[in-house]
Design goal:
By secondary structure, the chain is mainly beta. The chain is built from six helices and 37 strands. It is 8% helix and 38% strand.
Length: 501
């Protein structure tokens, strides 16, 4: 199909009249925020995860079938210590292959948990992980080719915290008291209140988006915090939705960390945009004791704010459980994420933020090589994808992902400049396994990498340049991946793989 005709069909689909969807249930916000249990992962035995089936009543309706790591939905918070070895086992109690990918962690390819390391029902994977990563907030999830989207959506995901015992962390760090993990997801529910995942044409093109916002598995929860500085570790674990986080009263807060670890200094701001799989750590001052809500602008499927090219003026467009276009349950230009109130507990931890932070800041030097990557539609699978059938409708540099093909070979220890672009008016998020990188420019404009910090996911909505170096090896049998982290794009073939030699 010629590109112009395809774009015409896509535009016609977007212009489908928006329907108001009535539901037989009401999603009541305000339940307490669950705090994930910690699994301290060290060198001893007993650090075990099991991928299991479960059920959960998300909205006061019918119970939804879910998956999780050692619990009905999501998994425990895994805590690692830099400089130590971590032994962990993952057993598959499901009826299809899974993996456990340590997203953002600097480990060799044979420990990375990518598609080549899938293991089947009844099998156990027991890697020994040398933890060589700065203090950071990371992400773990299943990463099976063609099945990452539905598996993560059902619940095979969780948060990782890496601590560095050699630095003096001057930020709030009393877990569950003034240091909280926030795993943010959007989910879609049918009229009975069951969580659903079914891909229509728009879902395949732009990624699956739901109308209800969950934090740590609960719809729009409430958290009671102390009257002082509070650290929030935010993970966008949605399949495709982009968030533009801010507080309902417009209060200022400080970003203190990005995907790969701490910034050099706290960065004052009133809003932060997070694409899929990005993480950010912020510190918020609640000493005024005012109740407040964390909200997000509704960013449309093309990366525009609600009311832009890919959205309507009353709420984000999305499919209902029948594949019909309609408003999500959390419709409108602003999405409520969760609410905060201030308890009677006396403030704990630091009373003020430091002017500098103990960031890990290795010098990458000048690139010795440049590589170009274009994220695009794959014409061979396009029609099958548009008709709702399985097919590799996405690709990179004109090729869909093939598991037994190595696309690039990188030399360890050499700095490279990667240039990423997209050949359509579509937003993507580019993730690289095995390292963290510096963002050099976006849309032809240079950026200050010190303000952005170390990344492993970057938004691509125009020409984007990143500077990176690989210090961990990856073989042909267990290569590293680069891919779009809109999970439906990844599953549809927008992924490549490379060795580090």
């Amino acid at each position: 199909m010629k590109r112009r005709k395809f774009l015409g069909l896509a535009t016609a689909a977007i212009a489908t009249p928006v329907l108001n969807i009535s539901r037989g249930w009401a999603a009541e916000p305000g339940a307490p925020l669950p705090i994930p249990e910690i699994m301290e992962v060290g060198s001893g035995a007993g650090n075990a995860l099991e991928a299991i089936r479960g059920t959960r009543d998300f909205v006061g309706g019918a119970a939804s079938e879910t998956w999780g790591y050692s619990q009905d939905y999501l998994g425990p918070l895994l805590r690692f210590q830099r400089g130590r070895t971590a032994n962990i086992s993952v057993t598959n109690r499901l009826d299809e292959p899974i993996t456990a990918h340590w997203h953002g962690m600097h480990v060799p390819g044979y420990l990375d948990g990518g598609p080549q390391l899938a293991f089947g029902p009844g099998e156990t994977w027991a890697p020994e992980l040398p933890i060589d990563h700065p203090a950071a907030t990371l992400f773990y999830h299943s990463h099976v080719h063609g099945r990452t989207g539905p598996q993560v959506y059902r619940g095979l995901a969780g948060m990782i915290i890496i601590d560095d015992p050699d630095i003096d962390d001057p930020l709030p760090r009393d877990y569950g008291v003034n240091d909280f993990p926030l795993i943010v997801q959007d989910r879609r529910f049918d009229r009975s209140g069951r969580m659903t995942y079914g891909l229509g044409m728009m879902d395949r093109m732009h990624g699956f988006r739901g109308g209800e916002i969950l934090v740590n598995g609960v719809i729009r929860p409430k958290l009671t915090v102390p009257a002082g500085l509070v650290r929030l570790r935010i993970l966008n674990a949605s399949n495709a939705r982009v968030y533009d986080f801010r507080f309902s009263d417009g209060r200022q807060f400080h970003q203190v960390a990005s995907d790969g670890g701490l910034l050099n200094a706290p960065l004052a701001t009133t809003s932060l945009q997070l694409d899929g799989a990005e993480r950010v750590e912020i510190v918020v001052d609640f000493s005024d004791r005012a109740a407040v809500t964390l909200v997000s602008s509704d960013i449309g499927m093309g990366g525009m704010m609600d009311g832009g090219m890919m959205g309507d003026r009353g709420g984000s467009m999305m499919m209902d459980d029948r594949g019909m276009m309609g408003r999500g349950g959390n419709s409108g230009a602003t999405l409520d994420i969760m609410s905060f109130d201030v308890g009677e507990t006396a403030p704990v931890g630091p009373a003020s933020l430091p002017t500098t932070l103990p960031a890990d800041a290795p010098e990458l030097g000048d690139p010795v090589r440049r590589r170009d990557f274009t994220l695009n539609m794959h014409t061979g699978g396009m029609m099958r994808g548009m008709m709702g059938r399985d097919g590799q409708m996405m690709g990179i540099n004109g090729e869909p992902y093939i598991m037994d093909r190595i696309d690039e070979t990188v030399r360890a220890g050499e700095t490279e400049l990667w240039r990423i672009n997209a050949d359509m008016m579509m937003r993507h998020t580019f993730h690289v396994h095995g390292t963290s990188f510096r963002v050099v420019s976006q849309n032809g404009r240079s950026v200050d990498p010190e303000r952005i910090g170390w990344k492993d996911v970057v938004r691509v909505q125009g020409p984007t340049e990143i500077l990176l170096r690989f210090d961990k090896l990856a073989s042909q049998e267990t290569p590293f991946m680069y891919h779009c982290h809109i999970l439906e794009h990844e599953d549809a073939g927008m992924m490549g793989q490379f060795t580090v030699v």
